[in-house]
Design a protein that fits this description.
alpha+beta, Cytidine Deaminase, domain 2, binds tetrahydrodeoxyuridine, 4 helices, 132 residues, 30% helix
Amino acid sequence: MNKKIIQKLILSAKKASQNSYSPYSNYKVGAALLTKSGKIFTGTNIENASFPAGMCAERVAIFKAISEGFKDFEALAIYAQGKHFPYPCGICRQVIAEFSTDLPIIIAKSVDKFTITNISDLLPFVFEFEKK
Ligand code: THU
């Protein structure tokens, strides 16, 4: 993947993480989803006093894109500072796999500490259901 695009997506995800509403975990996640048409949708994690009602950054970005009529994706960046690389949770992997079988995913702890993987590696043998 193009270095400039990688940096742009990480910076967009970092910026989105600044809007994180995470008073319970204090873990600020940002996601930036690049569409095939060149648009970037961002998302951040939104927590709730009733914990399961919260939402991950990745799904916010994907649902924003889908609801605006975009479902062909080129790449996804996920950003969060911390000890571990911010790999997406299992539910987000399933949601990503709904729309892309080979989406590159940039996992960033900072602008220059990142790794790149793919949804096909993160979620092999994905659950599928016949579309009606
Ligand atoms: N979180 C995400 O935003 N994405 C993930 O893939 C994993 C977890 C958020 C949810 C919650 O607000 C915080 O990180 C701690 O779990």
